[in-house]
Amino acid sequence: MDDQSAIPESDPVALFDAWFAEAGTSEPNDPNAMALATATPDGNPSVRMVLLKGHGPEGFTFYTNAESRKGGEILANPRAALLFHWKSLRRQIRIEGSLHEVTAAQADEYFHSRPRVSQIGSAASDQSRPLPGRQTYLDRVEDIAREFPEGDIPRPSHWTGFTLVPQRMEFWLGRPNRLHDRRLFVRDESAAGDGWTSGLLYP
Ligand SMILES: Cc1cc2nc3c(=O)[nH]c(=O)nc-3n(C[C@H](O)[C@H](O)[C@H](O)COP(=O)(O)O)c2cc1C
């Protein structure tokens, strides 16, 4: 028991929910933006921002193009790290674990929940591959809009989502005099209670 820490010592998923909900009311835009770090099997890392589009005990879900740079890295090495930083709250959350692809039905549902223009923009994008000139992209957008003059655009099969199943979750809370608070949760199926163990880390 550590009564000096401001971070609860159990249930990191509920703690994520609480911090995420607070970020939703305090951040000026995209409180669901997170850095997604992936790596090649031989250890070359890369990182970019994506949007969190679903979360719960099963994991943290984002959507993307499976043929992008990140998609290739995930296919070869399905492990990743996520990072949220809510500056105005002085809070950071790091999450690490393995990834699995969402079902086609889930990907369809999310793809078709987006505005038609976003569907067209994604369908026209060979994400991460060289683009000879911006006009090429705009022409593809126009071609798709002409091919499907109204309503939803069919989801390209490479446009999909991934769910990160958390193995480690770390919460960082800025506190006065730089005496910050950090707590690391590690999933441990043999642990009593919620299946997580936790401990503090030096900041
Ligand atoms: C705030 C923000 C949110 C973004 N959200 C997504 C997203 O949800 N999915 C996505 O594929 N790209 C998203 N992007 C673009 C990515 O950061 C990145 O440029 C793109 O996915 C290509 O990355 P890759 O070449 O590493 O595959 C977002 C960018 C920003 C700045």
Automatic annotation (TrEMBL):
Pathway in which the depicted protein is active: Cofactor metabolism; pyridoxal 5'-phosphate salvage; pyridoxal 5'-phosphate from pyridoxine 5'-phosphate: step 1/1; Cofactor metabolism; pyridoxal 5'-phosphate salvage; pyridoxal 5'-phosphate from pyridoxamine 5'-phosphate: step 1/1
The record places domain Pyridoxine 5'-phosphate oxidase dimerisation C-terminal at 159-203
Residues in Pyridoxamine 5'-phosphate oxidase N-terminal domain copies: 29-144
Taxonomic superkingdom: Bacteria
- GO biological process annotations for this chain's record? pyridoxine biosynthetic process
Q: What is its EC number?
A: 1.4.3.5
Required cofactor(s):
FMN
Any single GO molecular-function term of the entry would be: FMN binding
Q: Which residues bind FMN?
A: 48-53, 63-64, 69-70, 92, 127-128, 172, 182
UniProt cross-references to Pfam families, sorted A to Z: PNP_phzG_C (PF10590), PNPOx_N (PF01243)
Which protein family is named in the record? Belongs to the pyridoxamine 5'-phosphate oxidase family.
What is the annotated role of this protein in its UniProt record? Catalyzes the oxidation of either pyridoxine 5'-phosphate (PNP) or pyridoxamine 5'-phosphate (PMP) into pyridoxal 5'-phosphate (PLP).
Q: What is this protein called?
A: Pyridoxine/pyridoxamine 5'-phosphate oxidase
What organism does the UniProt record list as the source?
Qipengyuania oceanensis
**Encoding gene per record:** pdxH
